[in-house]
Design a protein that fits this description.
Helices cover 20% and strands 33% of the residues. The protein is of the alpha+beta class. The longest helix is centred in the first third of the chain and has 37 residues.
Length: 403
């Protein structure tokens, strides 16, 4: 038996020290276990880290094609419209002028160059055959058709179709904060066009951009670009077609006028017209180059197809194809993103401009103000039967199928 003196020697201080030692040992064990687990996890992650490398959805690593400015497909004036537009039902025939498919941008043939008068009935058929033959002039199978329709032959080129006219309204955001609505006025009859973009910004006033021009063998051909930012004066860029020069009011410098040259906003509609003409040609990774002028300079803009995405609007979700301007030079942090919606006739449903300092200006489609027809009449009461959500601007002629 233990003596009373031994029992008395175990004091509360001894017990406290014993408990502290036990606690330290216990936490030391826990810490060792945690460090061991982390070490094992680190070794495993080192062996499998390639699995966790993120793939940015905004930059496709494989470039499918690099497209440069090309002539658009043209057809002599007076030739019949594309085959699908000829046998149209009465309801669609009434709306055909709004289609604006550009197959005629050249003067018609002179009288002595026309087909013999003894064959008026077969001329449309022969011209249609020539349309298909021109894109494969070296083919023996199409040689006869090309010969028969030589009086109204077509010139091969990229497909091009101007979007339908309309006044669109957009929600505007400045660094994510909603502001007053902005507008895009777009009008074209297939021979000329007008585009006016208005974006109200807090404290600085309304930014407006206007592009006016015509259509030539390379698509949209701006004649004048006018930019006004808030209370500042207008900066005007003029495209002198006679002297092949681009002039500015902001600087005395001039630039040579290149084929297919665009301004900052006609470029959007030039892209829309090309995509609308041949949607299947613009798959993810395909990059098209545009020569774009600002209010004092010009440069090549590489526009890459990112892919099909859904854009959320106040009217619901709309399918669109996303395009992004790639960096023009090393260190270029300014970025422009455009989403074109097939249900809106490939008009833009969303635009985002990101400045080098991170400032973002965004436009998101919110509906139609008015959509004039070919005669300039308001068709806001026009009944369309597009899928939900029903967009306010449609392409009632024959618009391209949704990709």
């Amino acid at each position: 038996m233990s003596s009373p003196s031994a029992v008395r020697s175990i004091t509360p201080a001894h017990l406290a020290r014993a408990r502290r030692r036990a606690s330290r040992l216990r936490w030391t064990g826990v810490l060792a276990a945690v460090l061991g687990a982390h070490l094992i996890a680190a070794q495993w992650f080192e062996r499998h880290h390639d699995t966790f490398k993120p793939v940015s959805p905004e930059h496709v690593p494989v470039q499918v094609a690099l497209l440069k400015p090309e002539r658009i497909e043209t057809q002599a004036a007076g030739s019949p419209p594309p085959a699908k537009a000829a046998p149209a039902a009465p309801a669609h025939a009434a709306r055909a002028p709004r289609e604006h498919v550009l197959t005629a941008t050249r003067p018609g043939p002179k009288p002595h160059e026309t087909a013999p008068a003894t064959e008026p009935a077969s001329a449309p058929v022969e011209a249609s055959a020539a349309t298909g033959a021109s894109s494969a002039s070296g083919s023996n199978a199409n040689a006869n058709a090309a010969g028969q329709g030589s009086a109204q032959s077509t010139a091969p080129g990229v497909k091009f179709s101007v979007p339908p006219s309309g006044n669109l309204q957009y929600d505007t955001f400045y660094n994510g904060v909603r502001n007053q609505p902005g507008t895009i006025h777009w009008s074209s009859d297939g021979r000329s066009y007008d585009m006016v973009v208005s974006v109200p910004l807090p404290f600085v006033g309304t930014f407006s951009y206007a592009s006016h021009g015509h259509v030539d063998a390379f698509g949209l051909a701006p004649d004048q670009y006018i930019e006004k930012r808030g209370r500042r004066g207008e900066d005007i860029t003029t495209f002198h077609r006679d002297s092949k020069q681009i002039g500015f009011t902001r600087t005395p410098n001039t630039l040579p006028l290149q084929d297919g040259a665009q301004d900052r906003f006609s470029m959007v509609m030039q892209l829309a017209s090309l995509v609308r003409g041949d949607p299947d040609a613009y798959q993810p990774g395909v990059t098209r180059q545009f020569y774009v002028t600002d209010n004092d300079s010009g440069e090549i803009w590489p526009i890459e197809t990112i892919g099909d995405e859904s854009v959320r609007t106040d009217h619901g979700t709309i399918d669109a194809r996303h395009f992004m301007r790639l960096p023009r030079r090393e260190g270029d942090r300014r970025r422009i993103d455009v989403w074109l919606a097939p249900s809106l006739g490939w008009l833009p449903v969303r635009l985002v401009q990101t400045e080098p300092n991170g400032t973002q200006i965004e436009l998101v489609w919110r509906g139609r103000i008015a959509s004039p027809d070919a005669d300039g009449n308001d068709t806001s009461s026009d009944d369309t039967t597009s899928a939900t959500p029903q967009p306010s601007v449609t392409d009632p002629g024959a618009g391209p199928e949704k990709p």
